[in-house]
Amino acid sequence: MTVIEAVNLAKVYRLAQKDPGLFGAARALVRPHHVDKVAVDGINFSVQGGETVGYIGVNGAGKSTTIKMLTGILVPTRGTVRVLGRDPHRERVANAREIGVVFGQRSQLWWDLAFIESLNLIARIYELPRPRYTLLLEQFVEMLELKELLHVPIRNMSLGQKMRAELAATLIHEPQIVYLDEPTIGLDLIVKERIRAFIRQQNREKGTTILLTTHDIGDIEELCRRVMIIDRGRLIYDGPLQTIKERFGKYREMTFETALPALEVELPAGAELVHAEDRTLHLRFDRTAISASRVASHIMNQAEVVDFSLAEPDLSMIVKQLYRGEA
Amino acid sequence: MVPSMRRYTSLYWFFLLQRFKILMEYRANFLIGASSSVIMQGAGVLAIWVVMRQVPGLNGWTLPEIWLIYGLLTLSKSLNHMFADNLWTLGQAYVRTGMFDRFLVRPINPLFHLLADRFCHDGVGNFLVGLVLVLVAAPAVEVAWTPLNILYLLIAVLSGGLIFVSLNLITSVSAFWVMNSVPVVRVVFEMHEFAKYPLSIYPRAIGLLLTLLIPYGFAAFYPASYLLGRDVPAALAWGAPLVAAVLFFIAYQVWLFGLRHYGSTGT
Amino acid sequence: MKTTLRQLRRTALVYGAYAGMVPKLFLAYSSWVWMNFIVQGVGLVIFVAFWRAIYAEQDLIGGLDLQQTLNYIILAQIFLPAVHSAGTIYYFGELLREGRVGIELLRPLDFQGANYAANLADMALGLVVQLPLAAVAWIFFRFTLPSDPLIWIAFAITLLMGNTALFFFDWILACISFYSTETWGLTVLRFGAAQFFSGALIPLVMMPEWLARLAGALPFAQALYMPVSLLSGVTPLSEAPTIWMMQLLYILGLGLLSRLVFRVSVRRVTVQGG
């Protein structure tokens, strides 16, 4: 079943342009001129129920804007979005019942209230039946290890504690779709693991659809089978995690060990040196320009190679390339 | 409609309960906050007392009659202060920080959520000052305090409160466009200062302004005049609830308009 | 001699830079300036209407006639920044919230001195910003100003000394924020008290004896009523020396006390590690 469907979805912001100086400020008062900034530029995608989708891109690529349109916070400039068959902005309240949102660093919990009080308030807002709420609370407390935190106000929690609390508060009404914006940013490995395990479990047991934006490749690799990449407002990739490597792994890395010091070795066109030590040669090459065997034979013609290896492209490398605009 | 009314009422109580838990945690702040507004109002009240004890009246109004106007206005104002103070901070504390997004992904009315999020205890001080003024004035003015008149007074105060809330709502919607909405809110809000005194002491234009455009006159002056048996047209004497309802309707439309434009400037 | 001079100049520059921050911050909030202008304009219209209605009943109140009273009130409203300039309480609260007290104390200048400089700049700027209000008030209500330069000089001295005394008083009050976490209420509390006791609403001479004495004892009136009553002629010039003696005592007493209170209360933060 399709739960999210975006067709030609676009968002254009109108920014008031301010010229510097007093004169500019005065002119802006009389005749403000605006600049259109296209944040999301006509994207199409659909998400099936129970999918876990990683949504990645650099800051300002349009990730947050997309999420805000999907959640009903922003009205799209063009195109349509349907979430569970509804227009999320026009039927905001009905949509809100079915979704949960974690906005990275911004807590949805009441700063000065003890965590349990915040949860009770949320249970009221979502009109959760008492027995169900009690049951879920018990489960969440165990899975996220929240027992000691229940009576602590949010303001006194550490970052990791806050995020665990946040997740519990976001999922307590058993939303069908959960949007997670940077859920593990700034957390240590153990907390990250716990949070990922929790998300995985919710997805497996309840069929919760997860849309995750993150800069953390670990999140993607451990949680998402499908990845969407947005760049300057356009979707440049939408597919399984596996094929991303084939498509975007433009650069491969190769390491040679030579019998004699090989600092003078000349590299073939399309390859460049990453690092060289007296008997090790670490280089990378553009696989669209030159094949691996050509690189290897080029080096082997010049020096005695004891051993060599070709590195498997990993996602973090690919993402780094993408972010640098090398895709 | 009715079940949702019931739901929101019970939800409001729950919000209020949580708020009191926080306030009780910071008891000193609660006391300072509540008494701060008493002192603020007290300064104005004391000044009037100091001056008016030396003269027989103000433009034909005796001191207790002035207290009645002043008290009614302060009561109306306190309703706004207690229940709708968060409108002031919409821009600074919610829109700018992105906290407002929160309200939009919850299955309740965002305006309700905004108002319920913070009951403002400072307003309690205003409420007490207004109540004391009206209670001091009541036996000293020539009004027969029949149940009907008391009901009239209650309706006047509630309507006045709604007028305050509506005007603040209209101006605070500017927070969806400009960085800081407080100056806009404050400038319109401050017009209520006129309405603490009989409107008859001002040039005619001001009286018209406070009746037609920024109708704070309906919060205190017209109801008090009617009760005190002054010559007031029926429309002005009985207009308060209607004016308040229409104004709130307009304000809510402005709010909805603002919501549609929320976020259009990007963050 | 030369080195002390250079030293002095450098010190002046450092404090000057500190004070110079204020106008920059202020201009960043130009919409607040317009807001204050309108809010105070509304206040003036109310005052004038109120006093005209009052004087319709009686010619003299507290020995003043309508013109004298209006003159006094309008001037008091124009010079209001003298009592409301110090944002010390709020500033302390900000420092505490952001945990910056320690850092501020480490700067190579006297913390209180720097704040005093900022306070003076704040008042000066506050008064400059009042010019449009003064102009509008003059056009519509025609207040009068003295022509005797001696009165102006006496006024300036009294204003400066009164503001200094009030600064120390505020400093002591601000130290409360080391104990309570909320400063907004405290600021409003102080604002309300200042509003009445400074003589911004009514001249002290109209108050009943006991109230006038209370207002005279609090430092708010030093910063507003004393200078403005000199300027508007409510208080004769001959009383100026007496006022200055009094203000000097305030400055000495409150100044010493403020440093003592600060030293005691700041320990609370630095020891506990705010």
Give the topology.
The complex is a heterotrimer of chains A (327), B (267) and C (274).
Chain A: E1 2-17, H1 21-30, E2 33-48, E3 52-56, H2 63-71, E4 78-83, H3 92-98, E5 99-103, H4 115-125, H5 130-143, H6 159-171, E6 177-181, H7 189-206, E7 209-213, H8 217-223, E8 226-231, E9 234-240, H9 241-248, E10 251-258, E11 271-277, E12 280-286, H10 292-300, E13 305-310, H11 315-323
Parallel strand pairs in A: 3-7, 3-8, 5-6, 6-7
Antiparallel strand pairs in A: 1-2, 1-4, 8-9, 10-12, 10-13, 11-12
Chain B: H1 2-25, H2 27-52, H3 63-83, H4 86-95, H5 99-104, H6 110-117, H7 122-140, H8 147-172, H9 182-189, H10 204-213, H11 221-227, H12 234-238, H13 240-261
Helix pairs in contact in B: 2-7, 3-7, 3-8, 8-9, 8-13
Chain C: H1 2-27, H2 30-55, H3 66-78, H4 81-84, H5 88-97, H6 101-106, H7 111-129, H8 131-141, H9 149-174, H10 184-197, H11 209-217, H12 220-223, H13 225-231, H14 240-272
Helix pairs in contact in C: 1-7, 2-3, 2-8, 3-8, 5-9, 9-13, 9-14
Offer a quick outline of the entry.
The complex is a heterotrimer of chains A (327), B (267) and C (274). By secondary structure, chain B is mainly α.
Defining key terms:
heterotrimer; B: 267 residues; mainly alpha; 13 helices; C: 274 residues; 76% helix; globular
Structure description:
The complex is a heterotrimer of chains A (327), B (267) and C (274). A six-stranded mixed beta sheet of chain A has the order 5-6-7-3-8-9, sandwiched between helices. In chain A, strands 11-12-10-13 form a four-stranded antiparallel beta sheet, covered by helices on one side. In chain A, strand 6, helix 7 (189-206) and strand 7 form a beta-alpha-beta unit. Chain A is built from eleven helices and 13 strands. Chain A is 35% helix and 30% strand. In chain B, helix 3 (63-83) crosses helix 8 and helix 8 (147-172) runs parallel beside helix 13 (240-261). Chain B contains 13 helices and no strands. By secondary structure, chain C is mostly helical. Chains in contact: A-B, B-C. Chain B binds chain C through residues 26, 28-29, 32-33, 35-37, 39-44, 46-47, 50-59, 122, 180, 182-183, 186-187, 190-191, 193-194, 197, 201-203, 206, and chain C through 29, 31-32, 34-35, 38-39, 42-43, 45-46, 49-50, 52-54, 56-58, 61-62, 179-182, 184-186, 188-189, 191-193, 195-196, 201-202, 206-208, 211.
